[in-house]
Amino acid sequence: MEGVETKSFSLVEGSQIGSKFSTCLAENVEGFQQCVKEILKLIEQDGNLSETTSEFCDGKKSKLTTHVAELSRMHAVLVDQHAHLIGEFSKDCESKIEKQYLDSYDSSSPQVTQMFTPDKTSNTRKCRTPIGLDALLSSGGGGSYASRREGSESSFSLSSDSDSESFMSINKLRISPVNDDALKVKETKAPEVQTLVDENTNLKECNRRLQEEVSIYVADISVRNDQITELSRNLDQSMSDIGRLKMEVSEKCRSVNDLNKHLDSLKLKKDEVTAKVDTLRAEKRSQDNLVRELETCLNSIQVEHVGVLSSFDNAQEVIDELKLKVMELEREVVRQREVIFDTAEEKREVISIGAA
């Protein structure tokens, strides 16, 4: 009855330990999966973005590096927890089997006491391991613990061949309950351990694939960085060209402003010339009116001149007639003078004659 109670207690305690490590393992697996989701999200964002900047790529590269480091850390933690779980499970099974074996038999028996006491005849002072425990330690649940104890099989060996033969012959029939308990514990814990091993293997494979994908994307990011560098150089050149063109445009604008000012001055001059032209046109119209008046006067004068000329011709004829009359009168005067002279001569002769 006491052996059954001890066995039940050991199973409950083993279940508590397994539950504790299963919880820790589940938390680490969940964190691992969360990091994987973050990396996939960043990869998807990288696929959706057509244009990136150098700062964005550097930030994304930093995030990917952080997530990969976190994955590596979680993987190491999972490996350590797996090894620790296997070791604790092996130690727990060993201690519980020893306790069950001691509770099942009388501890005063010299053969049983000798199983778990130091070998006084051996210089190595190593402990012996009951038969059946080796089967547990060599199984999947105790592989890590057994591997840590390779090269030290002498720790669980008998100090001499005679002691081994005596031990085997005395305890051959007594050890079968321990073997049964060990097999039951192995059957109970082996699926959990195998599950953890499978999960660890899957996580390793997933980590390997993710590291390969991360390497690919890091290389892609490097290529993108080179492209961004080239685009930055092109952008700098374009900005330089834009600056030069802006300076040229500014100079052209200044030239246009100068031309606009010159055009304004020309417009003012044009307005002045237009005003002068209008004035000259008004003067010309007045002069035209004056010319028309003068022409009218001239026409009237010409008409008068024609009349005068006709009158002049008539007057000329009268003058000619008068000249002829004058000439006749002059001849008459000359004739009268001659007559008068002759008369006077005759009178002087008469007088002279009369005086004489």
UniProtKB/TrEMBL annotation:
Keywords assigned: Coiled coil
Region (Disordered): 140-164
Low complexity bias: start-end ranges: 153-164
Coiled coil: 256-283, 312-339
Name the record gives this protein: NAB domain-containing protein
Species: Helianthus annuus
